[in-house]
Amino acid sequence: MSLTIAVPKGTLLEESRRRLANAGLSLPHDVGRKLILDDPGGGARFLLLRPSDVPTYVEFGAADCGIVGADVLWETERSVSELADLNFGYCRLVVAGPRSAGFHQGRPLPTFCRVASKFVRSAEGYFAERDLPVQIIPLHGSVEISPVVGLADLIVDLVATGRTLAEHDLVIVDEIAPSTARFVVNPVRFRAKYEEVTALLERLQCDA
């Protein structure tokens, strides 16, 4: 019985491909715009998806299991089971602000400041835990420029190397949480395909 596996496009794709190859599954290269791909050996079908869509496809059973960043799971309310941390795609969700503001040196964060982020739920949770009222400004990209042009006082964003922050003279004020690739599964499909799913997970983790 083969598996249907949701694989995220973007930064996690190539390492996901390598891990799958080490698990004996071949995710084809150079497929143009095709988003449904089959392992030549017949062991799996792959769905190439936007990262934010992976939990949805898994929850509703269009995919049996999938690979997705923890940051995506934080922002969704999908009923999927997270079985393992695959230990790649490391980055950090952080609060950052202009170097000139001095927040990184201990200056208190202002109340009712504006915070720009793609990670609205995570940002809301962070400031709510600190009882700090803020205005969250949802953005879908180019978050780093928002303090530069006066749209926001702070940002909440994912950081890998910190290079983009530095290019816009932003510094990390606080780290919210680290994010890595996670293996998720549809709970019903997990029971129905327990042996196949656990065998795949074991092979993926052998390379961790």
Helices, strands, pairings?
Layout: E1 3-8, H1 13-22, E2 36-38, E3 44-49, H2 54-59, E4 65-69, H3 70-74, E5 81-85, E6 91-98, E7 113-117, H4 120-129, E8 134-138, E9 154-159, H5 163-167, E10 170-179, E11 181-185, H6 187-192, H7 194-205
Radius of gyration: 19 Å
Give the CATH architecture of the largest domain. Answer: 3-Layer(aba) Sandwich
Kindly state the number of beta strands.
11
Q: Assign a percent range to the helix content.
A: 25-40%
Mean pLDDT: 93
Count of folded domains: 2
> What is the approximate shape?
elongated
Describe the protein's architecture and organization.
With 208 residues, this protein is α/β, with parallel strands linked by helices. The protein is elongated, with a radius of gyration of 19 Å. Helix 4 links the parallel strand 7 (113-117) and strand 8 (134-138). It has helices at residues 13-22, 54-59, 70-74, 120-129, 163-167, 187-192, 194-205; strands at 3-8, 36-38, 44-49, 65-69, 81-85, 91-98, 113-117, 134-138, 154-159, 170-179, 181-185. 33% of the residues are buried. Helices cover 26% and strands 31% of the residues. The protein has two domains: 3-89 and 180-205, Periplasmic binding protein-like II (D-Maltodextrin-Binding Protein, domain 2, 3-Layer(aba) Sandwich), CATH 3.40.190; 91-178, 3-Layer(aba) Sandwich (D-Maltodextrin-Binding Protein, domain 2), CATH 3.40.190.10. It starts with a strand and ends with a helix. The longest helix is centred in the last third of the chain and has 12 residues, at 194-205. The strands form two sheets. The chain has a six-stranded mixed beta sheet. A five-stranded mixed beta sheet has the order 8-7-9-6-10. The protein is built from seven helices and eleven strands.
